[in-house]
Amino acid sequence: MANPAEKHKGEGHRRRLRDKFMDAGLAGFHDYEVVELLLTLGTPRKDCKDAAKAALEKFATLQGVMEASVSDLTAVKGIGPGNAFGIKLIQAVAGRYLEKKVIMTDPLSNSKALFDYLYHTMGSKDRESFKALFLDAKNRVTSVETLFTGTLTASSVYPREVVRAALDRSAAAVIFAHNHPSGDPEPSPADFSITRQLVFACQTMGITVHEHIVIGNNRYYSFADQGHITQMNHEFQKKA
């Protein structure tokens, strides 16, 4: 029978990691040590160092580990549903925290919070997704929805459905965002085309399009910053 006083392998190391975090946050931590701490949330009496290193090797980056599916995580030796729980819990909590920082704020005057939220929720996905932020008349975000999810290289976006979603939420304005799985946020000709269609469709119904952001690998492209949204609005007014 095992001695209850006998420490499991790595217990002292884990305690030192936790103490280090409580003293100074994640400063000075290796990425595998962050993963290790998350794995221990679901398996407090199991050494997770080797599994953490294996996960980081498999998914290349800390963000890759955080965004991995449960099935992909549990394919890593030493990771089961129990300790995958810690990683998925923290990833979901972070997403909700960042979303709450955006909801009922004016994203036009707080672009960092907006980018932090979009990058966390879209930045490392391996499929394109199209997200809409719905704003009230005071440009405060009232809700955020992922409207379309596509293939590896494109998503099918239907302006009529976007307008319907905005009207259903009584939105006065919208901000659009989608990701490029390649990591390069430079917009494609198709991105320009659908943005123009969305601006025209929304303006027809009296809904203002403030922005369309393309999320890449820790970078983004802003249609508004580059003057394209203003130009498209002018084009619509000439045709109206």
List the helices and strands and how they pair.
Elements: H1 11-24, H2 31-42, H3 49-59, H4 62-67, H5 70-73, H6 81-102, H7 111-122, E1 129-135, E2 141-149, H8 159-168, E3 173-179, H9 189-204, E4 208-215, E5 220-222, H10 228-239
Parallel strand pairs: 3-4
Antiparallel strand pairs: 1-2, 1-3, 4-5
Helix pairs in contact: 2-3, 2-6, 6-7, 8-9, 9-10
Question: What would your notes on this structure say?
Answer:
By secondary structure, this protein is α+β, with helices and mostly antiparallel strands. It folds into 2 domains: 11-95, DNA polymerase, domain 1; 104-239, Cytidine Deaminase, domain 2 (3-Layer(aba) Sandwich), CATH 3.40.140. 50% of the residues lie in helices and 14% in strands. The protein contains 10 helices and 5 strands; from the N terminus they run H-H-H-H-H-H-H-E-E-H-E-H-E-E-H. A 5-stranded mixed β-sheet has the order 2-1-3-4-5, sandwiched between helices. Helix 2 (31-42) crosses helix 3 (49-59), helix 2 crosses helix 6 (81-102) and helix 6 (81-102) runs antiparallel to helix 7. The longest helix is centred in the middle third of the chain and has 22 residues, at 81-102. It is elongated. The mean pLDDT is 87.
Main-sheet strand order equals 2-1-3-4-5
| SSE series | HHHHHHHEEHEHEEH
The geometry reads as elongated
Q: What is the total domain count?
A: 2
* CATH structural class of the largest domain: Alpha Beta
Structural class: alpha+beta
Chain-averaged pLDDT: 87
Which stretches of 5+ consecutive residues score pLDDT under 50? Answer: none
C-alpha-based Rg, rounded: 22 Å
The CATH architecture name of the largest domain reads: 3-Layer(aba) Sandwich
- Helical fraction: 40-55%
Give the helix tally. Answer: 10
CATH-derived topology of the largest domain:
Cytidine Deaminase, domain 2
Strand content: 5-15%
Major beta sheet, specifics?
5 strands, mixed
